[in-house]
Amino acid sequence: MRVEAAKVAGYKDPTKHGKYYIHEPLHKMSNVAGYHLVGKRIDIYQALEDKEKYKKISEVIINTPQENCMVNFYLSTFDNPYTPEIDPCFSTSLGKIFIHFEK
Predict the structure, then answer these.
(1) pLDDT in tens, 20-30
(2) What's 52's DSSP letter?
(3) What is the distance between the alpha carbons of residues 98 and 84, in angstroms, rounded to a whole number?
């Protein structure tokens, strides 16, 4: 369905672009630092359970408040910085992506 939506939107390579999680421009939100990209409630152990592809990659250890928690991703840019900068992050060509956990 997303590939069909990418075709309708006129993307050059709809098969590639149809695999994105979300298609929309970044919007500044009032009272929110940084750009909120996506958020989802997950169970850490259930998400990793019996996934062969995850067993082959190097480990990344991130402390979460509990096994089942809300995970939000924020983009911090020069014009719209994310604060506080105590959350885990990684750098991209557009800015830093911060991972924020909530119970």
Answers:
(1) 666 677 778 88
(2) H
(3) 10
